[in-house]
Amino acid sequence: MTTVEFITPGGTQLIKHLNNPRTVNTIINGKWDVVVFQEQSQTPACPGPLRKLFLKGIRGLHAITDKTGSRIMLFNTWGYLGGDKRNFKDDTYTEMQKRLNHGYGTAAKELDVELAPVGDAFGEVKKINHQLWSQLYARDGSHPSRTGAYLAAVVIYARMFDAVPKKISFNDSLSASIAAKLRATASEALRSGNPAPRQDGQHRPKTDSQLILRARKSIRTLTPPSVLEQEWREA
Question: What is the radius of gyration, based on Cα positions, of the chain?
């Protein structure tokens, strides 16, 4: 049976996790196969002090996690439906996604860790079905809907277990046709991406343990654990 633990306090950046004894002790003592890190949704997409803060946080957490022998994965998130207009006046989803990819990609390359290209999967949906893409978001245009959470879960699951998304049978509450379209876009995002190679000794877990460590904008569940856990039980 797969063990999954989430540490997702609202509005917390990775730098705060680095200075949080609960987070650090959970990483050190959990004997995790995989630890997944996600930064607050805007921070990696803001060049300058905020991105530097992201890099400082992930470097510190990487140093701690690397000593445990756990695989490390970065949850590369999606741009907002209308971009980050709070920080960039004329922003768009596409421009925000480019900045997010640059931020996460820089960290992954420097630290030699894997990427789960969830944001790129959102982008693949946008290419083929604009209406479905908009349905990936909750009403606030930043958090995911159940549909978006499903897509995120498929990408992370497939990257973690080296699985083929199109062969996943679990549809959650989605129609079979919609779930199939999302799995196809997940496949394309994973195929097109360029994750850093895993270090020697790292392995794909079968049914063991994962710690999902995320910084969230609010306390709303970003990727429902029920979706992820159902996927992993079927591995």
Answer: 16
**CATH code of residue 22:** 3.40.50.1110
If you average pLDDT over every residue of the chain, what do you get?
Answer: 86
Q: How far is 229 from 66, CA to CA, in rounded Å?
A: 24
Rounded average pLDDT over 92-104: 97
Query: For 151, left (φ over 0), alpha (ψ -120 to 50), or beta?
Result: alpha
pLDDT digit string (tens) for 44-77? 999 999 999 999 999 999 999 999 999 999 999 9
Q: CA-CA distance, 6 to 173, in Å (whole number)?
A: 22
* Domains in the chain, number: 1
The DSSP output letter for 43 is G
Token representation of residue 92: 């768009």
User: Tokens standing for 2?
Assistant: 């797969």
Task: Compute the distance between CA of residue 106 and CA of residue 114 in angstroms, rounded to an integer.
Answer: 12
CB 103 within 8 Å of CB 44: yes
Contacts (Cβ under 8 Å, ≥6 apart) of 207: 1, 2, 232, 233, 235
List Cα–Cα distances, 7 to 23, 181, 229, in angstroms.
Answer: 7, 30, 15
CA distance 214 to 212: 6
Rounded distance, CA 92 to CA 15, Å?
A: 27
Tell me the backbone φ, ψ of residue 120, rounded to 5 degrees: -65, -35
Question: What single-letter DSSP state applies at residue 147?
Answer: H
Contacts of 49 (CB under 8 A, 6+ apart): none
Domain that holds residue 114: 3-233
